Amino acid sequence: MSDESTHWVNPLRSPEDKRLPRIAGPSGMVIFGVTGDLARKKLLPAIYDLANRGLLPPGFALVGFGRRNWSKQDFEDYVREAVEASSRTAFNTNVWDRLAEGMQFVSGSFNDDAAFDALANTLRSTDETRGTNGNWAFYLSVPPEHFSSVVHQLDRSGMAQPQDHGWRRVIIEKPFGHDLESAKELNRVVNSVFPERSVFRIDHYLGKETVQNIMALRFANQMFEPVWNSHYIDHVQITMAEDIGLGGRAGYYDGIGAARDVIQNHLIQLLALIAMEEPTSFSPGRLRAEKLKVLRATTPVEPFDETTARGQYVAGWQGSERVIGLREESGFDPNSATETYAACTLEINSRRWAGVPFYLRTGKRLGRRVTEIALVFKRPPYQPFEDDQTKLLTNNAVVIRVQPDEGVLMRFGSKVPGTAFEVRDVNMDFSYAEAFTEQSPEAYERLILDALLDESSLFPTNAEVERSWEILDPILNYWESHGHPDEYRAGTWGPASADAMLAKDGRQWRRP
Ligand code: BG6
């Protein structure tokens, strides 16, 4: 199958003007796992928001597949509830009616041949009635143990390949494996049916506006790139802190932990965008080649007892709310060794970055929800001031605030007004909310639209996913043979070992 030859050319998208809205061509989407949390809270609202913004084709078809014995009406009611609860844009009855017309539900389990044959018939008849033209995306929002059954069923029933025209794509949710070996096996299964160019692995962080802005900041400006290297940067901190606990997520999280849940994907992807060389263009091939190149140069720093930290939250206070510890959360093993906090030190063996540690940390039940990347500068080689004139001055920093309060902050020293000469830190702050009137779309809106448009730049490749596991696996193996994670109280900033990890290098974590 050649995607090039069947790619629908959008007449509204002029190649000369990339600022025009990109509208998906005739197409439909089948969601497996449509009754799950992710579909309800993110995917279905995002599809509605895209329709509401006029970015889906008028005949768009949405097919749910699941075990429930639902009629079309039941499915519509379910989707409507999800949309009303979580969509970003206001509810519009006309948009809803047109979208709902194209909804269908096929009932069955993943090992039920007849159900997949019925699904294939549904797609064929929908091609006639809605003009979807054989263009279908299959969204696998299911636990990884089901990937293989679904992919094989799509192959067996003939849905994985377009008949005489159209395209077929598969969109896959994380987690993509739990270590290198399992990721390789999943890639083997998926790629045995779908060519790599038709596989869209979701890392929803790449769909966030602020994450895409890393590329604008670095490559559309002149002032940052000259200092973006080991001559000027002392170290980089990548933080993804959440205040939520894990109540209700035991089934997915116990035995998985923070490193597999977000370092392997979101945080390592952020590192790649921060550290990669400038791609010659943002075409999928060129952007992803640069990310892969820098990931290949990235390795974990040892010894892991000093360069990594992991923790598990125990009961504490989240603001004024008393919260329980992980082991008391329902569904978790009372002896669970699952880490809810993970930190590690990575280094990049390249001319640009050698000697600059990249500290990554993430955790649940931390002080507050914040994701940010801080590039902390070296001190000037010489300062013509007395020590006490600069004692309130710390290292300069550029901080990319991914969320919330999206923006970019620069920290530098300024003279304190007055007759004395004293220098202390000040912040210069760019905030999306103040600079732009446009609201940022949700990450899933962007990614679903990109998949329908065959724009794969923001989707990690099989090689990137495997390399990320290769980076993380040695740390996971070390942890596995070294007892339980340290404890930290809910509402604090993680275990003492995380502070020690930076203190031994004479540094400290930012308190965002
Ligand atoms: C998911 C993780 O990938 O990202 C969750 O599985 C985490 O554990 C979530 O809560 C955070 O996403 P966001 O967009 O709210 O930062």
UniProtKB/TrEMBL annotation:
Glucose-6-phosphate dehydrogenase C-terminal domain: residues covered: 215-510
EC numbers on record: 1.1.1.49
Recorded catalytic activity of this chain's protein: D-glucose 6-phosphate + NADP(+) = 6-phospho-D-glucono-1,5-lactone + NADPH + H(+)
An example molecular function term from Gene Ontology annotations: glucose-6-phosphate dehydrogenase activity
InterPro entries given in the database record: G6P_DH, G6P_DH_AS, G6P_DH_C, G6P_DH_NAD-bd, NAD(P)-bd_dom_sf
Glucose-6-phosphate dehydrogenase NAD-binding domain sequence ranges: 30-213
Record-listed NADP(+) binding positions: R67, K174
Assigned keywords, A-Z: Carbohydrate metabolism, Glucose metabolism, NADP, Oxidoreductase
One Gene Ontology biological process: pentose-phosphate shunt, oxidative branch
Gene3D superfamilies: Dihydrodipicolinate Reductase, domain 2, NAD(P)-binding Rossmann-like Domain
Pfam families for the chain: G6PD_C, G6PD_N
GO cellular component, one term: cytosol
Superkingdom to which the source organism belongs: Bacteria
Binding residues annotated for substrate, in chain numbering: H204, K208, E242, D261, K364
Pathway info: Carbohydrate degradation; pentose phosphate pathway; D-ribulose 5-phosphate from D-glucose 6-phosphate (oxidative stage): step 1/3
Active site: H266
Classification via SUPFAM superfamilies: Glyceraldehyde-3-phosphate dehydrogenase-like, C-terminal domain, NAD(P)-binding Rossmann-fold domains
HAMAP family reported for this sequence: G6PD
Family label: Belongs to the glucose-6-phosphate dehydrogenase family.
Task performed by this protein: Catalyzes the oxidation of glucose 6-phosphate to 6-phosphogluconolactone.
Matching PANTHER family: GLUCOSE-6-PHOSPHATE 1-DEHYDROGENASE (PTHR23429:SF0), GLUCOSE-6-PHOSPHATE 1-DEHYDROGENASE G6PD (PTHR23429)
Designated name of the protein: Glucose-6-phosphate 1-dehydrogenase
Record organism: Corynebacterium lipophilum
Top-level taxonomy: Bacteria, Bacillati, Actinomycetota, Actinomycetes, Mycobacteriales
